[in-house]
Amino acid sequence: MSTANKDSIRIAFAYLSFIVGAGFTTGQEILQFFVNYGKFSLVGAIISGLIVIFATRQVAKVGYRLEAESYDISLNAMFGPIVGRIIDYLLIFFLYGTTIIMIAGGGAAFYDGFGVPTWLGSLIIVLLLFVVLQVKFDSILSILGAVTPLLVITVLVIAGYNILNPSVPFSEVNQHTDIFTTPTRSWWWDAITYGGLIIGNSFSFLTIVGAEADRHKIARRGALYGGVIFSVLLLIMVAGILSNIQEANTVELPTLLMAEQIHPVLMYTMATVMVAVIFNSCVGMLYPLLNRFTAPNSKPYRLLLFILLILGYLFSFVGFADLVNTVYPLFGYIGLFITLALLIRWITNKTSKKKLM
Questions:
Q1: Relative orientation angle of helices 299-315 and 264-293, to the nearest 10 degrees
Q2: Does the model's pTM come out above 0.70?
Q3: Number of structural domains, the chain?
Q4: What is the per-residue pLDDT across 204-252, written as a single tens digit (0 to 9) for each?
Q5: CA proximity to 296, closest of 141, 143, 135
Q6: Which of 178, 294, 301, 347 is the residue whose CA sits 20 to 30 A from 70?
Q7: What is the CATH number of the domain that holds 211?
Q8: Is residue 296 predicted with pLDDT exceeding 90?
Q9: Residue 355 forms part of a structural domain
């Protein structure tokens, strides 16, 4: 395998481990955005996947071409200083809000998987974040990517088993949906919004990844590979939870329930993966946020990190499922706006002599 492909896969694994966060691995966001629309959920997953595949590649390309050390450079280039600044502040707010969701999800995963009190599980996540976020970015990428193979295998086993052994036949899934738990009651709009959510979540991280890539090909391939793998996993997860929709709607962490029904060992494996991925997501969102305001590993960096983690820990007690339902749809709209700008840029570059970035 060529060095370029190795680097691209490394980026893809880091991206995948970062973006597949608390809501995805627990199944909670998949349940809310897709599964409770019944048969339409599979179509929705495909729509979201196509949005993610397209936009992730474009974000990384922009980051590379601008050599953007911080994501606000890309925003200003795409939208101008005024609109770019507005989106910048909105991203800051929602990135931090999503980090709080991840910390809450980590506490829930520790409790449901290992019986550790929620407050202690979240505290463990916070303490580890304080340590890991003080290492170099290359090391952070390696840490993020390390858990990805186990994540993919575990998701395939759990979802695959439930697809092959459904507790609810596909013809009956619509009888067990709970439309009132969905963000907007519209399957196609929630699917589009979810695609925007993924882009909003990953824009800052992908921008830096693109800028750090040695070559343009590595940046675009790495993001593309990550987007494709994520989209396939999303479709499989939707199908897996849909096969167990009746029981999935009764718990906060559906995938953990599905794993336990297969074998207790698999439940502990999934809980471990879940905690690791949630931790990775926190790293992937906090690092660009810290990098936006401070120089890495400086005293202001460590001070801001400390403050953000303390506040995040306190706010995490609001509750995981409630946070997902409130914050995620709003963040998705920001991501959709960014995706639309990327689409306009791509069309312009393909059809006009005037090239944008």
A1: 130
A2: yes
A3: 1
A4: 888 888 887 777 778 778 888 989 999 999 999 999 999 999 999 988 7
A5: 135
A6: 347
A7: 1.20.1740.10
A8: no
A9: no
Q: How much is the average pLDDT of 186-208?
A: 90
Query: Tokens representing 73?
Result: 């450079």
pLDDT of 117 > 90? The answer is yes
What's the rounded Cα separation, in Å, for the pair 290 and 70? 10
With beta carbons less than 8 A apart as the criterion, state whether 195 and 55 touch. Answer: yes
Model confidence at 17: pLDDT above 80: no
Residue 279 forms part of a structural domain: yes
CA distance 162 to 192: 26
How would DSSP label each residue in 74-133?
HHHHHH-HHHHHHHHHHHHHHHHHHHHHHHHHHHHHHHHHH---HHHHHHHHHHHHHHHT
Tokens for 69, please give them: 């050390």
Quote the CA–CA distance of 193 and 180 in Å, as a whole number: 17
- 27 inside domain: yes
Radius of gyration of the chain (CA): 19
Query: How far is the C-alpha of 32 from the C-alpha of 324, rounded, in Å?
Result: 9
Q: Is residue 351 part of a domain?
A: no
Residue 146 pLDDT exceeds 80: no
Region 317-341: what's the mean pLDDT?
77
pLDDT tens-digit series, residues 66-109: 887 788 888 998 899 999 999 998 888 888 888 888 888 888 88
Q: Tokens standing for 166?
A: 């459904």
Contact 289, 95 (CB under 8 A): yes
With b meaning 16 or more CB within 10 Å and e meaning fewer, what string describes 227-246?
bbbbbbbbbbbbbbbbbbbe
Both tokens of residue 282?
A: 């926190």
Q: Which domain holds residue 113?
A: 7-346
